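your task:
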Amino acid sequence: MLETKNNIWLVLLLLIGLCLACSSDGETDEANKKADEANVSGQNQKAEEALANSGKEDYDKAIADLSKAIEIDPQNAEFYFRRGTAYYIKKDFDKATADYSKAIEINPQYENAYYQRGLVYFNKQDNDKVIVDLSKSIEINPQRENAYLLRGLAYFNKKDNDKAIADLSKAVEINPQAAPAYLNRGIAYAAKKDYEKAIADYSKAIEINPQGATAYQARSESYRTTGKKDLADADEKKAKELGYK
């Protein structure tokens, strides 16, 4: 099945200036700690803008600053989640998993953490764990299109085409413009040898995204299987023009 690119919609926060200078009016250590925590929260908007405009070289800095934030507030699930995402982008999947798991331990209803941990497991090709985490994500947020898409891909990898189709159908129900869901559902239909439905889904994916080379190639294969050589040749040519290899 199509190896979809992961949409990292999550924005990491580069936490700046975590430590405040001690005040001169005799505040207690506890008061200073609360002041530090307030400063972390207050830096979020500025920090988000800083990291959003930065490149990968800043992820190490993000991890260092988030680690400092965790020292200040070790029960803040959001800090673990964001650090986990920095590790994920760096492809340090074991550390990402550990941080997402800690976020879930602190907040068992943290839907984003289940989704992202499922994404890590997907990259590690652990389809059973993908399904468990994405099912929890869907339980908490039943309208999350990408959760159905990702779980559908995991079911397909397990050769459970019917469950894959059910999840991908839910994804397009939520978002009728979800070209990857149509494309992958088409691939699942082709695996069931239902080429008519496969071609219909590929065509819809192409309608939504005319620059999608994989959809043309997939449709070409279904056309060729059903004896429609001219249409197959035209799609294969188009796929190559769009860079399919």
